[in-house]
TrEMBL record:
InterPro entries per UniProt: Reticulon (IPR003388), Reticulon-like (IPR045064)
Subcellular location: Endoplasmic reticulum membrane
Region Disordered, annotated ranges: 15-38
PROSITE patterns: RETICULON
Biological process, per Gene Ontology: response to bacterium
Protein name per the record: Reticulon-like protein
Keywords annotated in UniProt: Endoplasmic reticulum, Membrane, Transmembrane, Transmembrane helix
A GO cellular-component term linked to this record: endoplasmic reticulum membrane
Membrane topology (UniProt): Multi-pass membrane protein
Domain called Reticulon: residue spans: 63-248
Length: 248
């Protein structure tokens, strides 16, 4: 009887060790795909070296809420107003001065008739609030425009006085593309297209960022290959050193 009890104890201990080994192996197997998933995600290079979320890249706050459709009513209002302005001035070919004058005529006529109708039926005339542009708002708009213009001028100056050939070629290519688009579209149409892109591209990118980043990584590798070929065949053959010696 003692021998049988010892055998049963040994079998139970062996079963416990076997169950522990199997659970540890299953845990290790479960951890492998998690590690592999995290390594795959870490291998994905974000576009333009992005390390922060899209919301923070756009500056956060109300402007990011507009671009990413976090505030749907405000975004729909902005796009609806821009679409109405574009339809008026581009499709109907309305002019800005004509629109302002017609709006003022309509407003003055409605208020004048309303005020006289109230006095005719012995009622007090309607209270029309005084409208003034706040000084802080106009100052902030002027300062923002001044800051952006100065930053653009400083960037162009840095490119012109610098020796970074990539930035120089990128600026020339960007300005050439804008000038080409300007010959096909009016300024208002181009502004409307940019506005629509700002309200659609970040939203789509935030939703499908992993797929877009993997595709963008492949595209950037192909662009680097093509640039290396262009650099070897064209840029390195430009006698920049001889020009520098002539200047000195």
């Amino acid at each position: 009887m003692a021998e049988r009890s010892e055998e049963t104890l040994i079998e139970k201990i062996a079963e416990k060790f076997h169950a522990h080994d199997s659970s540890s192996s299953s845990d290790s197997d479960d951890e492998k795909p998690k590690a592999s998933d995290s390594s795959i995600k870490s291998k994905i290079h974000r576009l333009f070296g992005r390390e922060r979320p899209v919301y923070q890249v756009l500056g956060g706050g109300k402007q990011a809420d507009l671009f990413l459709w976090r505030d749907k009513k405000a975004t729909a209002t902005v796009l609806g107003g821009a679409t109405a302005i574009w339809v008026l001035f581009e499709l109907i070919e309305y002019h800005l001065l004509t629109l302002i004058c017609h709006s003022l005529i309509l407003t003055l006529a409605i208020l004048f008739l309303w005020s006289n109708a109230m006095t005719f039926i012995n009622k007090s005339p309607p209270h029309i609030p005084q409208v003034n542009i706040p000084e802080d708002l106009s100052t902030n708009v002027a300062l923002s425009l001044r800051f952006e213009i100065n930053r653009a001028l400083a960037t162009l100056r840095g490119i012109a006085l610098g020796r970074d050939l990539k930035k120089f070629l990128g600026a020339i290519a960007g300005l050439w593309v804008i000038s080409t688009l300007g010959s096909y579209f009016s300024f208002l149409t181009l502004f409307y297209i940019v506005l629509v892109l700002l309200h659609t591209v970040p939203f789509v990118y935030e939703k499908y960022d992993d797929k877009i980043d993997s595709f963008g990584e492949k595209a950037m590798e192909e662009i680097k290959k093509q640039y290396a070929v262009f650099d070897a065949k064209v840029l390195r053959k430009i006698p920049i050193g001889a020009l520098k010696d002539k200047r000195h």
